[in-house]
Design goal:
The complex is a heterodimer of chains A (664) and B (147). With 664 residues, chain A is an alpha+beta fold. Chain A has helices at 2-30, 33-37, 39-62, 69-74, 81-86, 92-113, 119-143, 167-196, 201-232, 243-268, 272-295, 308-332, 347-379, 387-407, 418-424, 426-442, 449-472, 479-488, 491-516, 619-637; strands spanning 383-385, 518-524, 529-532, 535-546, 551-561, 564-569, 572-576, 581-585, 587-590, 594-604, 608-617. Chain A folds into 4 domains: 1-165, Four Helix Bundle (Hemerythrin (Met), subunit A) (Up-down Bundle); 169-335 and 348-412, no CATH class; 413-516 and 623-643, no CATH class; 518-619. Classes of the chains: A alpha+beta (664), B alpha+beta (147).
């Protein structure tokens, strides 16, 4: 009964989305306030009907209602509660419901918090957002109904893919979708602005919090996914340039470019049509990511059950929105007045370079990801494009970008002075050399290339800190006065410093891991030993144990250094009887400077087990760097200047401080 | 600089960076593209032995042998017309077994495929697309295992 209710709620949501699409758009065209106002209640109704459907599906999972096909295929009564819930989005149908739920959530937030948007713009944004909802709700109802019944109901379910039974993966999809789908709202803002033909600083200020929210979530989502791949797949790496990773990375790159170009629109009223184009591209790439994952045209660990009909449907949605958006862009963009004036060497110029490099980097990732598809379609020749390609193209484009990241913020708007910016960056040069030399001394026996990464990271990190110090006039005025300035500084300044610092730390981690990791594979019987990076590892014993829905072989590896115990590692090899699947559970001993990563392969007492051990230097810096970027995004979001049109309710006096943001 | 000239400069710069990127991508393709071959392709075409390639097919029944050290494995990759002997040192993916599809990356040396990595596949019934296609080409395809 509840499942039918969920199905009905989805259809109701579809109708609501239709209303949300048509009525406010017509209202805005005819300047009819009553019609425009329909946008708000219909957006709210759409969200809550989808929420109802989502809860109905979750309920079916929690109560293990195996008369629902989707539950029977992806859940099991013995599964822990967390994975029963995460199972809701661990499959195609359920994840699409989550997708539209988040889509509607953004519509809801604009409806509620967008009070100070001009009524026509708000009506149009809601209308466009509604139309995306229409398309995807139709997709779910027609091709991917999660509430289909099964008769007779099986006694138990087929269980969720064990690889997905993991806390990292429980939260990765919602986060990632918040980012992916978050770019729908910047898209809606862009299309609405194109319809209105009015894009300026105010528009940029309205759209910025949404872009920040989407970017921050996408950063967190990609990080969680990478972290999951690192410790759950047992392959020892954290990024594989897998097509599906790329599919989430491309919107991130374009979204990053958009965040930066929107600043130029806001401050200087320039780069307007380019910014609109980026907003359209970011969502296009998000939709393409959805298509790539759902259609099964690319093989990857993420491949859901493949169904050509679904692929075609999403391709049609993609074609409609992207085609429509570009046609509108082509008609409207040339009519936009040219923006504010600036010299090539200026803050704007720096941001233009940022945009160019990020866009070109996106293009190379795009090429590498889709080239095998094109070649297969054109010639039937099968190729794969792996990490070497991306290392050879993506990294050379990133290096100038990273170097510029320290210089750009030092330039003033309109007309900058490169010489004075460089002279202010003396400390960055020292950091660059210092970090490079330090890590070279520590790793003089290893390949040299990562040192370049450290030098760049030092330059960037030092530059980011110097920029903040200059703003505070640190050591130039009494320290107390600097503190006062620190209080007055907009939150977005801290956000930028943190995010750029995060990139610097990330670059250190990624550089070190690229060339300094080491690996030992050995066949060990109990009490056998091996050495890696100064550690001694001894296989104590291997136990057979039983988990809630799996059986496991668990090794105990004692790690010692200079005959002192450092850690105990327990890698496992699990067998899930319901799915007849084996998984490798890696175990990681993590310190600030490196990870020791061990997996156990097949084997038995007599012949020994195959152990694989990696020494991965500075991996934790990768996660730390990403965390700082997310933190930077969150802090920027609390900037009071953004609160005009931001997801923040403000009543009464403008000066009323908000909880925790003003003095926190 | 006038706004129009600025726009032109912007577009020009854009093309220039795209040009640089294309040059980078093309040279990278030259060295880094990894081609996929079936055992039949390898028998029929002469394949450059220095280059990394991928081969795919089924792990031939009865061919999987583990050597003394417990780490090196030998097996044959077959599309049921031809087989190529392969050798790999390292732990095998969880689902690697005889009569299952496999894709391996490495290089050919004296008729033996030296695999550097064996691509992990996570689904019992999953047949790598490349392998399915090469079996179809060899006329040995028995249809989807599912449905």
């Amino acid at each position: 009964m509840i499942a039918e209710l969920g199905h009905f709620a989805l259809i109701l949501a579809f109708v609501m989305a239709l209303v949300q699409t048509t009525v406010p758009l017509i209202g805005a065209q005819k300047s009819n306030t009553v019609l425009m106002e329909i946008g708000k209640p219909s957006a709210i109704a759409q969200f809550f009907t989808i929420l109802l459907a989502f809860c109905a599906l979750t309920n079916a999972y929690i109560t293990s209602d195996f008369s629902v096909v989707n539950v029977a295929e992806n859940s099991h009564s013995l599964k822990p509660l967390l994975y029963k819930i995460s199972g809701v989005w661990g499959n195609h149908e359920g994840s699409m419901v989550l997708w539209v739920l988040i889509l509607a959530l953004f519509g809801l937030m604009v409806a509620i918090y967008g009070k100070n948007l001009p009524p026509t713009l708000r009506a149009r944004v809601l209308g466009i957002q509604g139309s995306i909802g229409v398309a995807f709700l139709a997709f779910i109802i027609i091709t991917s109904n999660p509430f289909l019944r099964l008769d007779p109901a099986p006694l138990d379910g087929r269980d969720l893919n064990p690889l997905l039974q993991d806390p990292g993966l429980a939260f990765h999809p919602p986060m990632l979708y918040l980012g992916y789908v978050g770019f729908s709202i910047t898209f809606s803002f862009a299309i609405a602005a194109l319809i209105e033909g009015n894009i300026g600083p105010a528009w940029a200020r309205w759209v910025r919090p949404w872009a920040l929210l989407a970017w921050t979530s996408l950063t967190a989502g990609i990080t969680l996914g990478s972290w999951w791949a690192y410790y759950e797949l047992g392959w020892g790496g954290w990024w594989y340039w897998d097509p599906v990773e790329n599919a989430s990375f491309m919107p991130w790159l374009v979204g990053t470019a958009f965040l930066h170009s929107a600043i130029v629109v806001e401050k200087r009223d320039a780069l307007r049509s380019w910014t609109i184009l980026l907003a359209i591209l970011a969502f296009t790439l998000s939709l393409m990511g959805t298509f790539l994952v759902r259609s099964g045209v690319l093989t990857s660990v993420h491949a859901f059950a493949v169904d050509p009909e679904r692929g075609l449907f999403i391709l049609a949605i993609l074609g409609f929105f992207v085609g429509g958006a570009f046609i509108l862009f082509a008609i409207r963009a040339p009519k936009m007045a040219l923006g504010g004036f600036f010299q090539p060497i200026s803050r704007e110029g720096g941001l233009v370079m940022n945009n160019l490099l990020l866009s070109v980097a996106t293009a190379t990732v795009f090429l590498g990801t889709l080239y095998p598809l094109f070649l297969d379609a054109a010639t039937g020749q099968k190729v794969s494009v792996g990490p070497p390609f991306f290392n050879a193209t993506f990294i050379p484009i990133m290096i100038p970008l990273l170097l510029l990241m320290a210089i750009g913020p030092m330039l003033s708007w309109k007309q900058g002075d490169l010489a004075s910016a460089m002279s202010r960056l003396w400390i960055a040069a020292i950091c660059s050399g210092g970090l490079g030399i330090l890590f070279w001394l520590l790793n003089s026996d290893k390949p040299f290339t990562p040192i370049i990464g450290f030098a760049i990271a030092g330059w960037l990190g030092g530059g980011a800190l110097k920029e903040l110090a200059d703003r505070l006039l640190l050591f130039k005025i009494p320290f107390r006065n600097s503190l006062l300035r620190a209080k007055g500084l907009p939150k977005s300044a801290y956000g930028m410093t943190l995010a750029h610092l995060g990139i610097a730390i990330f670059v250190c981690g990624a550089s070190a891991d690229s060339a300094w990791r080491s690996e030992v594979v050995f066949n060990a019987k109990e009490k056998d030993q091996t050495q890696i990076a100064g550690f001694n590892l001894k296989l104590q014993k291997v136990d057979r144990l039983k988990g809630p829905n799996y059986e496991t072989e668990r090794a105990h590896i004692l790690v010692t250094k200079d005959s002192k115990t450092v850690a105990n590692l327990y890698p496992e090899r699990r067998f899930y009887p319901v799915q007849q699947m084996l998984t490798t559970e890696a175990t990681i001993y993590s310190t600030v400077m490196a990870d020791l990563y061990a997996t156990i392969g097949e084997g038995d007492k007599r012949n020994g087990w195959v152990l694989r051990i990696w020494y991965n230097p500075l991996i934790p810096w990768i996660w730390l760097g990403c965390l700082l970027m997310v933190l930077g995004g969150l802090i920027s979001l609390t900037d009071r200047r953004l609160r005009i049109g931001a997801p923040e309710k403000r009543k009464g006096n403008y000066k009323t401080p908000k909880l925790g943001t003003e003095h926190g | 600089m006038t706004p129009t000239r600025r726009r032109l400069a912007f577009i020009g710069l854009g093309f220039l960076s795209l040009l640089v990127a294309s040059a980078l991508a093309l040279t990278a393709f030259e060295d880094t593209l990894v081609f996929f071959y079936s055992p039949s392709d390898i028998k029929e075409k002469s394949i450059n032995t220095d280059k990394q390639i991928r081969i795919g097919g089924l792990v031939k029944n009865g061919s999987l042998k583990k050597s003394e050290d417990g780490i090196t494995v030998r097996f044959e990759v077959t599309d049921l017309n031809y087989s190529i002997p392969a050798v790999y040192r390292g732990p095998l993916p969880d689902l690697f077994r005889e009569n299952q599809g496999v894709v391996a990356e490495g290089h050919l040396s004296k008729g033996i495929f030296r695999a550097k990595t064996i691509l992990a596949k996570h689904d019992e019934n999953y047949m790598p697309k490349e392998v399915a296609d090469s079996l179809k080409k060899a006329g040995k395809w028995k249809g989807e295992s599912k449905n």
